[in-house]
Write a structure and sequence with these properties.
By secondary structure, the chain is an alpha/beta fold. It has 18 helices and six strands.
Length: 403
């Protein structure tokens, strides 16, 4: 690509987009994009506000249908030339505001034009925005046409059968799972649990020598979703403040806050929808014993036993050992520290032996930095950690079969 030519075309595009655009301005924008090379087209679309671009071109009752012409150009005729990041930015722009029938069909075209690994990468890019406009909202909220949604989900399923990813999506609760915020009184309020961030990283990394793709952390919360996504975006900001730089949210509803069974039911509905978006993945879930997560995790396993690899429950209500043992038979693992969770995750085959050591090191360091209100409280937490550190040290250095 000739950089000077591309820069000149970008300046011309921005000039045409400044202020009010009449039909002549719109025609020049279309001609500029039509005449751009593949590299120039991606450069132009990467460096302008696509929401602004889409809104600048209109369909007139009497006169040219320039908006339709733009969508046809970008979503159909030249869609194969777009890089995945540009295609994802275009899909996100179409998702903003109201999504009329034409926008829904163009979104469908952007998905159906991709297969296999490219489709998986595209879906993951749409999840990576760090705000409420994600893939789940796009397919199950913004797309109102049931036939369009069915086409998308059928396409995802076909491609998943042909190209399974071999990786896991990591689903997690927030309160009393990531940090103290509901039932747990063992730590100071709002404490991020020692080792939890490292545990997420290791589940995301996977059990193999070569790390899996990073960025597969999804929070499944009972916190309600409002129409503007303000609560969800505020929660994502809170997660970033606590050391989670990038995550996806599957929110609850105000109605589902009324009781653990309703919380579990709403979380299961969100999970089943999410699993249809990413049928090429397996799943693990991390929750706590204080607010419906045990029931939710068990239902996950019942709904998709082959896909849900393991459920890890942070015990904040002192569950008796016989109940823990019974749940373990169902691949639902209760734990007191994230080192204990890592040991169980190793046995379940979802993190590596080295990953256990990394979680252990992070937990030991984090616990030492917590300001407990009393020496007795610190000693109790240190005793729990030392017990699970001993379990971690007793693990074999590699899988028993030598892998």
């Amino acid at each position: 690509m000739d950089l000077s030519t591309a820069t000149t075309k970008l300046q011309a595009l921005r000039r045409e987009m400044t202020g009010h655009t009449d039909r002549d301005d719109e025609r020049r924008i279309l001609d500029l994009l039509e005449g751009a090379t593949r590299e120039e087209l991606n450069h132009l679309l990467s460096n302008v506000d696509l929401v602004h671009l889409l809104s600048d071109l209109d369909d007139r009752l009497v006169g040219p249908a320039h908006h339709t012409a733009l969508l046809d150009l970008l979503c159909t005729r030249r869609a194969a030339e777009l890089s995945l990041p540009v295609r994802a930015s275009l899909a996100s722009a179409l998702q903003q505001g109201a999504t009329p029938t034409q926008a829904e069909r163009r979104l469908r075209d952007l998905f159906l034009g991709l297969k296999g690994r490219e489709l998986t990468a595209f879906k993951n890019l749409l999840e990576a925005g760090g705000e409420s406009h994600d893939l789940h909202k796009l397919v199950f909220d913004d797309v109102d046409d049931g036939a369009v949604r069915a086409e998308l989900l059928a396409h995802f399923e076909r491609e998943a059968r042909a190209f399974p990813s071999g990786e896991n999506k990591v689903l997690s609760d927030i309160d009393d799972t990531l940090f103290v915020n509901w039932v747990d009184r063992r730590y100071p309020p709002k404490t991020v649990y020692p080792g939890v961030l490292a545990f997420y990283q290791e589940l995301d990394r996977g059990p193999g020598i070569i790390p899996s793709r990073a960025g597969d952390l999804v929070f499944v919360s009972a916190r309600p979703q409002d129409p503007l996504g303000l609560i969800e975006n505020a929660t994502l900001d809170s997660l970033r403040e606590r050391g989670v730089p990038l995550a996806v949210m599957l929110s609850g509803s105000f109605f589902s806050l009324l009781g653990n069974t309703r919380i579990a039911r709403k979380k299961l509905e969100n999970f089943e929808q999410y699993a249809r978006l990413f049928p090429e993945y397996g799943f693990v879930f991390v929750g706590d014993s204080g607010q419906g997560d045990v029931e939710f995790g068990a239902r996950m396993r019942e709904a998709l036993p082959q896909a849900v690899r393991a459920v890890f429950i942070h015990d904040v209500v002192a569950t008796p050992q016989e109940q823990r043992d019974a749940w373990r038979e169902r691949h639902v693992f209760f734990f007191d520290t994230y080192v204990g969770a890592a040991v169980d995750a190793f046995h379940a085959g979802v993190i590596s032996r080295d990953g256990v050591d990394r979680v252990a090191a992070a937990a030991r360091e984090s616990l030492a930095a917590i300001a407990f209100p009393s020496p007795d409280q610190r000693q109790a937490r240190e005793a729990e950690l030392e017990r699970d550190l001993a379990r971690a040290s007793a693990l074999p250095p590699r899988w028993p079969d030598g892998q």
